[in-house]
Amino acid sequence: MKISASLYSSKDTPLPQLMQELDNLHIDYIHIDCNDDLSVFDDIEEIRTISRTPIDIHIISDDPAKFYPALQKHRPELVTFQHENLRGPLPPLPVGVKSRIGVAFVSDTPIEAFEHYRPLCSFVLFMTTVPGQSGGQFDQDTFQKIRQFQERYPGTRIHVDGGVNDEVSFILRNMGVYCSVSGSYLMQAKDKPGALLRLRSPYIEGQYRVRDFMILRHELPVIAESDANDLRQLLVCVHESRQGFALVADADGKLAGIVTDRDIRAALIKHLDDLEAICSSDLINPRPVTVDGDSTIGQMLELIRDCPFPIRFLPVVDSDNTLIGAIAFNNLIKGEL
């Protein structure tokens, strides 16, 4: 996951010194909040003379067109427009603007608002705090909004801004978020290298529970135990989910097993000389490793580290083994690319 350092969250360090610090950290983007203020392009002009780090500008204005000449001149790599401040449709961008364009939404805006921006925008920025203000608290409901957006607009990159600390960063990476903006956590840290390392760390402990960011049950490929004897139906469930697994639940909603791509391959190898002999019991692992929904991130990671084999999918259950969700770790890998 890319990290965009919010420039104006650091108020006391001279710009040349601050840019040298950030360049030494090999930060991915410089995030600049533009609260209807053309003078921020003076800072961008200065940054261009001392750094090659890409610029990520967030324009918060009801008159975005007045910024178009400056965008043509300074060519920031990323430009985001705040949806709630626009008085109508975004005016057509001039030909000279070559930036990747995105739109920002506050927490209360439904994800369906992105529909109007699809032809223009290659990414969305979810604001979890007040746009343009530093030091806010992350809005936990953003986790669900990210999942809903991914389901409705697959392939569109997701950026997140507001209250991102090391723990939130780990969760966002696991969810496949492309970029997070770090304000006070990084920019006001006395040890910026240490703060950046924690933002990218795979070992995190904190307040969030697995149930806070898991994939919810209704979003998962789940097949009833009574239907799992139908081999074709079981295989189709795994294939059509495009997640590489399917979960089996009994009539009471309790987890009865998991089928993964690996299980399917193992069954094929076992019965290679007689494929007709394959049955559902060859595919279903009735005792998969699971994690309790109330486990912390640290407890979940300890469970994974203690497991003697790699884990790509982790069913989430409650105290009586009722299936409530799952964690898929493929996004952690994709999020680092």
The largest sheet is: 8 strands, parallel, barrel
Count the DSSP helices: 13
Helix-strand string = EHEHEHEEEHEHEHHHEEHEEHHEHEEH
Mean pLDDT: 90
Helix content: 25-40%
| Basic shape | elongated
* Main sheet strand line-up: 1-2-3-4-5-6-7-8
Distance between the termini: 7 Å
Our estimate of the beta-strand percent is 15-25%
What is the number of strand segments?
Answer: 15
Q: What structural class do you assign from the helix and strand content?
A: alpha/beta
What is the domain total for the residues? 2
- CA gyration radius, whole angstroms: 23 Å
Unreliable residue runs: 333-337
Would you write up a description of this structure?
- GO terms for molecular function: metal ion binding; racemase and epimerase activity, acting on carbohydrates and derivatives.
- This is Pentose-5-phosphate-3-epimerase/predicted transcriptional regulator.
- It comes from Desulfurispira natronophila.
- This protein has 337 residues and is α/β, with parallel strands linked by helices.
- The protein has 2 domains: 203 residues, Aldolase class I (TIM Barrel, Alpha-Beta Barrel), CATH 3.20.20; 120 residues, CBS-domain (Roll).
- 31% of the residues lie in helices and 21% in strands.
- The chain is built from 13 helices and 15 strands.
- Strand 11 and strand 12 form a beta hairpin.
- Helix 1 crosses helix 2 and helix 5 runs parallel beside helix 7.
- It is elongated.
